[in-house]
Design goal:
CATH architecture of the largest domain: Alpha-beta prism
Subcellular location: Cytoplasm
CATH topology of the largest domain: UDP-n-acetylglucosamine1-carboxyvinyl-transferase, Chain
Strand content: 15-25%
Strand order of the largest sheet: 27-31-26-32-33
EC number: 2.5.1.19, 2.7.4.25
Helix content: 25-40%
Number of strands: 33
Keywords: Amino-acid biosynthesis, Aromatic amino acid biosynthesis, ATP-binding, Cytoplasm, Kinase, Nucleotide-binding, Transferase
Largest sheet: 5 strands, parallel
Function: Catalyzes the transfer of the enolpyruvyl moiety of phosphoenolpyruvate (PEP) to the 5-hydroxyl of shikimate-3-phosphate (S3P) to produce enolpyruvyl shikimate-3-phosphate and inorganic phosphate.
GO cellular component, one term: cytoplasm
CATH superfamily of the largest domain: Enolpyruvate transferase domain
């Protein structure tokens, strides 16, 4: 998962391939709560692993539910009529699918509970649910602002004779919470009546479907009256599988409609038209805009059809979350699109109506924001933009699709880790199926002499940007190690044999480790002997040529930071930023001396300085790719700088080259 302050997505050209999506958030947290409240053990397969499910699981553990992690999910031992552990202080993050249903269940069961979350959760209204629960005799107090969490829950005096009214026009989660909690106390028929229009009806369908799986068949009269039968009891279904998330699928359905103009398209595994999730109807909206869609029981395939996409005027009440993706698709339409009946966006993770309007305008779109609608006219000219994500996972994900803009403008997604709420690996999944030309993938080169600190600087810059990292020196060390293990002397007589081996070295850099196939060679290539051997093989022209293509293959989305001695002059001459890092021989010798002392290796600064100066001379006099700064490289002398100061300087240089630095 990208945990960087921002993620720059370069211009993207197309997409094809297959994706496997995480489990549905809406289904996951409903299933977890039902499994915790029912009788028996429930094995939940394909559970979404995200911030929202983690806070729910932790809350259930605190309440006394048995939770055991398994290879493909989790096994829960339900309370089965036992009272939840009390007192308990439950922190629920920004998970509405945990806060609302848990509040209702604990309120009807009674105890001493405090439910809180992040600051944004304390801005999301819960008053209509609390009002409904208070009318049936539950004791709930606000610990802060009236109508909003945090809440304190006490012992109820239930009165279940009269119908329980609940508003349906703010959030369907209020009705869901009541429907999931009331079977716990259904000694008689319990009726819930919806006041006003019920929004997000498909989410209520999910709730009713899952209640039936757990043994409770709720009767309903249209969408206004729901009856929990007397004697209802939650019972474990044993095993239950969580569907892939239809809301998350919307980004890849849109991706196919926008960018999959080849024969393969985008295939989405684990989801089909018979999904119980309402957001599966996003397929209809995508088709209305021109997407070519084929769907089976457990697979969806999407390709670009009509282009540009067709503008739409759509009531989005049935797909409130996925409709955000339509707003970005509208940027690629042939006219003005109108998304209606989306007032519920204002009480989600952020005020999504205001947020979407603001970010769409940054890209150049003309946007009219109403109380419950957006009118979106595509940009006359696209602009590069920093997308502020408001700690909202869906804003981060849907705006990533703006990188396909015809102007070839990059997009900066701020706080990309917010996708962890529902789809922690979203960007990795996206990059696995999109494509672009190599010049569009940004590269930062850090070249310089031995012991100048190239690797430390480059790896930290890569970490800060969320880019891949290439230690080209390690490739030469690995080549020397592999040749030595194969019995090849590091000389001209074996040059071509070593070169053939170098062409196919299975090298990976993973979390600071260097892997050769399945062998961790991190320590083996960091010895002084390995460094000397690397210098020997780097002097062999055929080996250097063989390693060029291998090094260039590390240029992958979203970008690369490469360090070495000829990254900017030979391997990536088109790199967007080239840094030549240096320090005095005396300073480098002193640093190396400290490193070796820590390892218990005896040496002297004088000897180290002589060795470094000799290496500098050899490297600068090579016939192939001699060590020298690229003509357009920026010189950075770090003799008197800390690592953090050097990193900060490179990041400043990098940001100065970005088109959205002042947006």
């Amino acid at each position: 998962m990208f945990a960087t302050p921002f993620l720059d997505i370069p211009p993207l050209d197309g997409a094809e391939g297959a994706v496997a999506l995480p489990g549905s958030k809406s289904i996951s947290n409903r299933v977890l709560l039902l499994a915790a409240l029912c009788e028996g053990r429930t094995r939940v397969h394909d559970l979404l692993d995200s911030d929202d499910t983690r806070v729910m699981l932790e809350a259930l553990r605190q309440l006394g539910c048995g939770v055991a992690r398994q290879a493909d999910g989790v096994e829960l031992t339900g309370l089965g009529g036992r009272a939840p552990a009390s007192p308990a202080r439950l922190f629920l993050g920004n998970a509405g699918t945990a806060m609302r249903p848990l509040a209702a269940a604990l309120a009807v069961l009674g105890g001493d509970y405090e439910l809180s979350g992040v600051p944004r959760m304390h801005e999301r209204p819960i008053g209509d649910l609390v009002d409904a629960l208070r009318q049936l005799g539950c004791r709930i107090d606000y610990l802060g602002r009236e109508g909003y969490p945090p809440l304190r829950i006490g012992q109820p005096r239930l009165q279940l004779d009269a119908p329980i009214p609940v508003r349906g026009d703010v959030s369907s989660q209020f009705l869901t919470a009541l429907l999931m909690a009331l079977p716990l106390v259904a000694r008689q028929d319990i009726v819930v009546e919806v006041a006003g229009e019920l929004i997000s009806k498909p989410y209520i369908e999910i709730t009713l479907n899952l209640l039936a799986r757990f043994g409770v068949s709720v009767r309903r009269d249209g969408w206004q009256r729901f009856t929990i039968p007397a004697g209802s009891r939650l019972r474990s279904p044993g095993d239950i599988h969580v569907e892939a998330d239809a809301s998350s699928a919307s980004y890849f359905i849109a991706l196919g409609a926008i960018a999959a103009n080849g024969p393969r398209g985008i295939a989405i595994e684990g989801l089909g038209r018979d999904s119980i999730q309402g957001d599966i109807r996003f397929l209809e909206a995508a088709q209305a805009m021109g997407a070519s869609v084929a769907s089976g029981a457990n697979r969806i395939e999407v390709r670009r059809g009509r282009w540009p996409l067709a503008a739409i005027d759509l009531d989005c009440n049935h797909i409130p979350d996925a409709a955000m993706t339509l707003a970005v698709m509208a940027l690629y339409a042939d006219g003005t699109s109108r998304l209606r009946n989306i007032g519920s966006w204002r009480v989600k993770e952020t005020d999504r109506l205001a947020a979407m309007a603001a970010e769409l305008r940054k890209l150049g779109a003309a946007v009219e924001e109403g109380a419950d609608f957006l009118r979106i006219t595509p940009p006359a000219q696209w602009r590069a933009a920093r997308i502020h994500t408001y700690d909202d996972h869906r804003i981060a994900m849907c705006f990533s699709l703006a990188a396909f803009n015809p102007e070839g403008m990059p997009v900066r997604i701020e706080d990309p880790k917010c996708v962890a709420k529902t789809f922690p690996d979203y960007f990795e999944t996206l990059f696995s199926v999109v494509r672009t030309t190599a010049p569009h993938i940004p590269v930062i080169c850090v070249d310089g002499p031995t012991a100048s600190g190239k690797g430390t600087l480059a790896s930290e810059v890569a970490r800060r940007l969320g880019y891949h990292y290439l230690d080209s020196g390690a490739l030469y060390r690995i080549t020397a190690l592999a040749a030595t293990r194969a019995g090849l002397a590091l000389d001209l007589a074996h040059e071509h044999g070593i070169a053939r081996m170098a062409e196919t070295l299975p090298v990976r850099f993973v979390d600071g480790r260097v892997l050769l196939g399945g062998d961790d060679v991190t320590d083996a290539i960091r010895t002084e002997e390995a460094g000397m051997n690397a210098s020997r093989v780097s002097a062999l022209p055929a080996v250097r040529t063989a390693l060029v293509a291998l090094q260039q293959s590390f240029r992958r989305l979203p970008g690369l930071v490469a360090d070495g001695r000829d990254m900017g002059t030979v391997i990536f001459p088109d790199a967007a930023l080239k840094v030549y890092l240096t320090a005095s021989a005396a300073q480098r010798a002193e640093r190396r001396h400290k490193q070796l002392n820590l390892k218990g290796i005896p040496t002297t600064i004088t000897a180290l300085r002589a060795d470094l100066e000799a290496r500098d001379a050899r490297d600068s006099q090579r016939t192939v790719a001699p060590l020298k700064p690229a003509q357009d490289a920026l010189l950075l002398d770090n003799s008197e700088q800390s690592v953090d100061e050097s990193v900060a300087q490179v990041l400043r240089w990098w940001d100065e080259k970005q088109p959205f630095r002042s947006a």
